[in-house]
Automatic annotation (TrEMBL):
Residues 134-157 are annotated as: Disordered. Residues 134-143 have a biased composition (Basic and acidic residues). One of its GO terms (biological process) is tRNA transcription by RNA polymerase III. It comes from the Eukaryota. InterPro entries: RNA_pol_III_Rpc5, RPC5_C. Keywords: DNA-directed RNA polymerase, Transcription. The keyword Ligase does not apply. The lineage of its organism: Eukaryota, Metazoa, Chordata, Craniata, Vertebrata. This is DNA-directed RNA polymerase III subunit RPC5.
Amino acid sequence: IDVFLARSLLEKLYLFQYPIRPASMTYDDVTHLSAKIKPKQQKVELEMAIDTLNPNYCRSKGEQIALNVDGTCTDETSTYSSKLMDKQTFCSSQAASNVSRYAAAVYKKGELHLTPLHGILQLRPSFTYLDKADAKHREREAANEGGDSSQDEAEDDVKQITVRFSRPETEQARQRRVQSYEFLQKRQAEEHWVHLHYYGFKDSRSEHERQYLFSQGHGLAENTELIKSPSEYLMMLMPPSVEEENDKPMAPSNVLSMAQLRTLPLADQIKILMKNVKVMPFANLMSLLGSGTDSTAVLRCIQQVAMLVQGNWVVKSDVLYPKDTSSPHSGVPAEVLCRGRDFVMWKFTQDRWVVRKEVAAVTKLCPEDVKDFLEHMSVARINKGWEFMLPYDEDFVKKHPDIVQRQHMLWMGIQAKLEKVYNLLKEHLTPKKQEAQSAHPLLVSGEQRVNMAKAKVKQNYGQLEKEFQKQKVEMKSNDTSAKMDVSNICIKEEPVSDEEPMDTSAYEGMNNGIVNGLHAEEDSTDSLNGHLPGGCIDRVAQELKAFVSSTFKKQFVLTLSELKRLFNLHLASLPPGHMLFSGISDKMLQDTVLDTGCKQILVPFPPQTAASPDELKVYALWEAGDTYDQHRQVLLEIFSKNYRVRRNVIQNQLSQECGEDLNKQEVDRVLK
């Protein structure tokens, strides 16, 4: 039997438990005269009719009770206006303090739909009318004893009184007063009753509300929490015994058993290994995880706990310094430590050498903390500084350019945060010139890379010429194309600085140790898409268009920043090597949005807004193919004139433009 979780009546559904009814009372539609509730206390009071024509009803007893309660006079304040006890009041009490494990279930067509209960209330008869009868009786006795008092009695003598000021209430006395029964009763009485309207079982409103007991969407993501594999379900039914785990001998905290490690999930294995080793090449990690481990799954997990530095993986700072912890040396909170260690990691993405004094001057941390950061990922060299402990992993960079690009984007974001926090100067952002004795074959200067790129172009000239001639034949254009002057082919050269090496080739850039082997500018409009073959460009455009179309069919309205965030999440879910990792510029993404039937809504946001430019660009799906297209377009036109509109204005405008009166539910659906 498929089980579904219905959320429409979440925190709204109550279970009422009625007492065993007498023969003269029925719980059908006509018996409920009134109902009211105190929501905070979850207290309900129902007034139900008694069938006075039932043969089991004692009429004389009913008349006697009505006489005792109301007396002989009948007015608006009377409890029983018919001079007969024809109704009874029921008050609720909570049957259980914790109802989180109770639910209402509906079985229909082989499906079981569950709705969690918000409360279980037991209804019991209320006898407050007896208190009212006693009060009436005491009033009559007091009136009889008093008799006719004389109007000529002399007034009482004026007496002197003494005024005393009460002492200030202590904290202990106040707590005792707050916890007293009298105070709690007073607080409960202060909450006002909310009157309810009762709908019968066969009423159309009840039938409509009853449909909310069924899950509204079977295939939606909200039901994925109920989907478990057989092994997971078996583990939930029969969890491992705690006694068996306690019987195992405890190993020292600094010893890691590989046998026990491989019994854990893959993500936990990688996290424990990286936390202990701190810096590791990907090949070593695969060897520790054992044969048969999927490298794609490992790549997906390693990015959750580590960052790529010079082709090697370094454990993230928040893994070593969890939240709410502090430094053992200085007591600095974990947030400040993570920021300082991120600065050290980022420096190693720029250079193989880091100077300890420079790190201390920027981060303002104590020397012991800075030394811990450096010892995690580097080795001290006399009179040189700290060198990254592992060589640049060129093999990993060449095999996984998509991972390298994604990590480069993450480092760009971290760099932006560090610039704001530490007010970094240009000398901190640009890598220093390498000395001749510390040069590494993998670190190539900008001039050398330009020469290598020129040589490569000359070497591949013949192949490029053949491909060009082949493309000319295939075009079959009627117009005579201009002849290509090969001598005019030149390499785009930029001024080479001694302080900042440049990269002229996307392929040769893999040999550069700067920024994880990839050099790219964030604001550059020349994306890698321009270097892809024509067929690949078409496939990338189709993939991007499919993503944009499916996203707007779910969201309808998105800002550019939110769309970019969703696109990054989509990229993270794709397997390594996917064509979308070739590089998608903001302009290409916006053009695709406009090509899929969406329009940019020029919302007049206030000039003093703190939103970023990407948050001010709003795109909306203009035609979704449903019945609300016209209403949605009217609504978007309204928001193109004002960024804040009252609901009644929207409802009136929709009614005028569409020529029909929309009810509240329809307006809510369009607004949502």
